[in-house]
Amino acid sequence: MTNRDHFGSKIGFILAAAGSAIGLGAIWKFPYMAGTNGGSVFVILFILCTLLIGLPILLAEFVIGRKGQADAVTGFKKLAPGKPWFLIGWAGFAFSFIILSFYSVVGGWILSYLFRAITFSLNGSSESFFNDLFDTVISNPWEVLIAQATFILLTIWIVSGGIKGGIEKASKWMMPILLIFFVVLAIRSLTLDGAIEGIRFLFVPDWSYFTWETALLALGQAFFSLSVGISGMITYASYLPKETNISSSALSVSLLNIGISIMAGLVIFPAVFALGFSPDAGPGLAFIIIPAVFDQIIFGQFFLILFFVLLLFATLTSSISMLEIVVSIGIKSKYDRRKRAAWSYGFLIFLLGIPSALSFGILADVRILGMSIFDFADFLTSSIGLPLGALFISLFAGFHFSKSTLIQELRLNDFLLNSWHIIVRFAAPIAILVVFIQGAMKLLM
């Protein structure tokens, strides 16, 4: 039996945790959510929800993970022996399995588009060309399955290398490259004629777009983009040494997540408005509108390659955290079984994801509560699983730990500690219940 692995540095942990949080939530989902919900109004609400609700819950996961020093299931058993709180860990295991099963499908789409970009096959004359191409890609059974399998293999390869040699090492070079590519793409987008309209859309609020539904969607986006609720941050924090300041780390992760989300908007919306496209394209924004936009600018093919490399890196940093949740619970303290567990669980996740991969093609007629298999898996986890997980994690951290333990772990002054306590005990659970009820009502309607 080998010793439990740890992150080698605080910056390595922050980059890994930020990578887990950023992913598709910031780069793929945030722009289309902002585009369909009033732009800057959604952005403002998202920032407030992230800092006032998401950050305290993220910190709660950090406290539980670092204090437990084990996988999520074992950690809860150590912290609350003889009580059913460990079921939170098993719920995280199950929902991580489901999320990665359909998340890897999107990762496969990104690989397909990256291959086409590198081979200069993403050049069409109109938006309809890219719309048809997207439909062709996601409905081709062999292409989506091969691409999904390739994405899963990349994820397994990184996770099987361990924390310091796999996840931390990959995050240390993928995240800086991701940030550099973002800056390059944002500069190119902002220098287009007419880009100012995109900037106004992103930063000048039109409060006529404000609705309570928009606020709830912003809160749900904050949960999704921070990856709270599935014990991922509990798992990562369990690999932290005691001297790491988890409060400053949580703030850094939250600010990075907000920054990357806004930068994604700066890459996409100035270009979209400058070239006369609509910002409310929905989930197809990254695969239909962006290729069409870059096809119309000088060196567009080069910038399109950068965009899909960036999207791939962001997706991988999230997928490795989800597989790590599953692997850490699966191996418990038998760390020498990491590689075998990574390959075994990765293969099972691939099998579970096959129906989602085929849900836009040969299984398109299969509906669950009126949704495709892919959309149902997304809804089940994003609207039900994550809010429920975040609710119980918030309640556990708020009511289980003594004040002396919290002072030792959080290292906050009395005002900030009391504020955090009130949020995780009362404000966050109420907000989460509202999101959960909204999701349940949508399911029943």
From TrEMBL:
Pfam families: SNF. It is a multi-pass membrane protein. Coiled coil: none annotated. It comes from the Bacteria. One of its GO terms (cellular component) is membrane. Keywords: Membrane, Transmembrane, Transmembrane helix, Transport. Its main location: membrane. The chain crosses the membrane at residues 12-30, 42-64, 85-111, 144-163, 175-196, 216-239, 251-277, 297-330, 342-364, 384-401, 422-441. It is found in: Membrane. CDD domains: SLC6sbd_Tyt1-Like. PROSITE patterns: NA_NEUROTRAN_SYMP_3. This is Neurotransmitter:Na+ symporter, NSS family. It comes from Psychrobacillus psychrotolerans. The lineage of its organism: Bacteria, Bacillati, Bacillota, Bacilli, Bacillales.
